[in-house]
Design a protein that fits this description.
It contains 13 helices and five strands. The protein folds into two domains: 116 residues, Beta Polymerase, domain 2 (2-Layer Sandwich), CATH 3.30.460.10; 189 residues, no CATH class. By secondary structure, the chain is an alpha+beta fold.
């Protein structure tokens, strides 16, 4: 299939018309995510993000629908009650940005026009920007505290999730949140915009003591085996058979790009998700544990990683405090 934006829009519209519009409880459907911008760069493998607003409790929270080996739909379902207070959405980093400029595919009534008009009003006011940033900073610091005082809780996935939140606490000062596929790929430009270019290196120090591109290439087969095993019954739909090529192609492209460390983040994060499934073979589990040992993410070196996370969070908190002070919000 030749991937163009028109092709992707038709896929989204056809799915909405056939699967979602007939449901009387579906209030609205939006195209969101990386395909939404008209000038979006289209990688070889991608997902089409749909947000479905449901009148009442939705039957599911997320659904993955495979279109081809290169394309899948990633559908989020949310209760309309979560959008009942549009002013509060200005401080919500995910829902607020989703309502900022989605492509409306279907609605009943005038839900979208009403909600978006209120969300956009004062969206860029420093108070609301800081609310969105602190929505990431607070859970990152809370996770750090828990891991510090209860080291057995410091799993790789928990550390990485806290790291992603810490990175997004800064990234959302100047744009929408970064998703797991491109978090480390897009973070450097956000840090540059903030005048904090050194933070990319500090972010890397949180997740690894060493970095070896060849090591990532060598580990791809074991990573893939673990991913496919976890995808048999995914507890998290980010680990779904339709998303294997989505991640693998990105990892391979990032390895060969100007900043190959971005591939390390994506492989590490998705492997951590896969490893929690309990479906990994003994061989794959041994490969995972060896990987953690070599990169300094095992229990032996967790103190170093927590110190690096603490230092990164200190910078995040100081930056947010400075923004608050400059705008009379301290």
């Amino acid at each position: 299939m030749r991937i163009t934006r028109d092709t992707l829009l038709k896929l989204a519209r056809d799915f909405t018309e056939k699967r979602l519009t007939p449901d009387r409880n579906v209030t609205a459907v939006f195209l969101v995510g990386s395909v939404r911008p008209e000038d979006a760069a289209l990688p070889a493998t991608l997902d089409i993000d749909l947000l479905v607003i449901h009148n009442g409790e939705p039957p599911r929270t997320r659904e993955i629908v495979k279109i081809s080996n290169e394309i899948h739909l990633d559908i989020s379902y949310e209760n309309i009650k979560d959008y009942a207070q549009p002013r509060e959405l200005r401080g919500d980093p995910w829902r607020g940005w989703s309502m900022w400029d989605p492509l409306l595919l279907h609605q009943k009534g005038r839900f979208f026009e009403y909600t978006q008009s209120i969300v956009r009003a004062q969206f860029d006011e420093p108070e609301n920007v800081l609310k969105r940033c602190r929505a990431f900073a607070a859970p990152a610091r809370a996770a750090w505290n828990e891991m510090l005082f209860n080291p057995p809780s410091a799993s790789p996935l928990k550390l990485l999730s806290a790291t992603a939140n810490a990175a997004n606490a800064l990234a959302t000062l100047v744009g929408p949140p970064l998703t797991e596929r491109n978090l480390l790929a897009n973070f450097p430009s956000r840090a540059e915009t903030l005048g904090l270019p050194d933070l990319t290196g500090k972010l890397l120090q949180v997740i690894t003591a060493t970095f070896d591109v060849q090591h990532i290439r060598d580990l791809l087969p074991q990573w893939q085996d673990c991913f496919l095993a976890a995808a048999q019954a995914p507890f998290d739909l980010r680990i779904h058979p339709a998303r294997l090529s989505y991640y693998k192609t990105a990892i391979e492209n990032q390895i060969n790009g100007n900043f190959p460390a971005t591939a390390f983040w994506l492989l590490l994060y998705t492997w951590a998700l896969s490893s929690t499934s309990g479906f990994a073979s003994t061989e794959n589990e041994q490969a995972w544990q060896h990987f953690l040992s070599q990169t300094g993410l095992n229990s032996t070196h967790i103190t170093d990683r927590l110190e690096a996370l603490d230092a990164f969070l200190d910078t995040v908190e100081e930056t947010l405090e400075q923004v608050a002070l400059e705008n009379g919000l301290a």
